[in-house]
């Protein structure tokens, strides 16, 4: 008798653009696992009942994406320290007893991507400049605090969102005016775009890198296009650059391991599979 296939998926609204099914689908094929990873679109009024139904249908867990990363926490029976620090979850395990365990692997994915593509980089080597103060910034600031960045400067168009992050993450976080961001690159080790600027269909993030040390690393969370105007300007200025696709790939690995039982590799084949999806 064959066993029921292992099930996981991603819940959001809209969900059609998500690369996660291509990513997990690649790993399932590569490791020959009898499983499925399914995109699920839930409207807000169906979110809670929809989530509650999934373990009954045999789902071992799910990823949660926009706009539900915060909502899911209120349904969780158990929340990891990092999800609780960030105030949002992206990786959900359904426990044997039907309970919901909520974790957040975005910060892990962010740091792993930099360590993978720039082995000489360390968060500890100097201040970081974070551009943006939305949901992605929250996970990245938490990860940079935990990774030992000595100072984290946040510049955001809407200053009070940056101030809210300073209040949340404490003494090492400082707030910089959005129009002073280029100057705040002085003596940084890491410069991070967490805004949606530079994404296909969005205006570019126009910053000059003259103030940045040549030793600094610039990275973007935008990965469509892979090389954003922000990254190409940083590269022209002689900085080390790391694109944002790897963050998406690395954040997916802990969930895959938990649901499907294999620690998956993040490599060029996976990048190619996700890019061509
Ligand atoms: P996410 O969860 O992906 O981070 P978000 O919470 O909507 O999404 O945050 C988007 C970020 O991009 C914010 O920092 C936003 O700045 P505001 O807080 O001022 O809205 C930033 N952003 C988006 N469009 C921008 C623009 N045209 N100029 C400057 N910043 C922009």
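^ Assign residues to that structure.
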């Amino acid at each position: 008798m064959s066993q029921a296939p292992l099930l996981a998926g991603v819940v959001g609204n809209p969900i059609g653009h998500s690369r996660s099914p291509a990513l997990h689908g690649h790993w399932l094929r590569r490791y020959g696992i009898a499983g499925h990873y399914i995109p699920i679109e839930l409207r807000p009024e169906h979110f809670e009942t929809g989530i509650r139904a999934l373990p009954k249908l045999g789902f071992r867990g799910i990823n949660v994406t926009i706009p539900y990363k915060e909502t899911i926490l209120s349904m969780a029976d158990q929340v990891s320290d990092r999800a609780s620090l960030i105030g949002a979850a992206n990786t959900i395990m359904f426990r044997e007893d039907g309970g919901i365990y909520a974790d957040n692997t975005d910060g892990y994915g962010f740091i792993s991507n930099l360590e993978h593509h720039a082995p000489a980089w360390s968060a500890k080597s100097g201040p970081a400049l974070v551009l943006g103060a939305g949901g992605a910034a929250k996970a990245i600031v938490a990860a940079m605090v935990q990774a030992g960045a000595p100072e984290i400067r946040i510049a955001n168009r809407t200053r009070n969102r940056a101030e809210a992050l300073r209040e949340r993450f404490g003494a090492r976080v400082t707030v910089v005016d959005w129009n002073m961001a280029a100057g705040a690159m002085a003596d940084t080790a890491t410069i991070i775009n967490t805004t949606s600027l530079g994404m296909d269909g969005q205006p570019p993030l126009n910053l000059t890198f003259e103030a940045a040390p040549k030793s600094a690393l610039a990275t973007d969370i935008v990965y469509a296009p892979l090389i954003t105007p922000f990254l190409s300007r940083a590269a022209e200025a002689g900085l080390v650059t790391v694109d944002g696709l790897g963050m998406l790939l690395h954040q997916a690995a802990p969930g895959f391991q938990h649901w499907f039982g294999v620690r998956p590799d993040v490599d060029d084949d996976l990048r190619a599979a996700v890019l061509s999806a």
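The mean pLDDT is 97.
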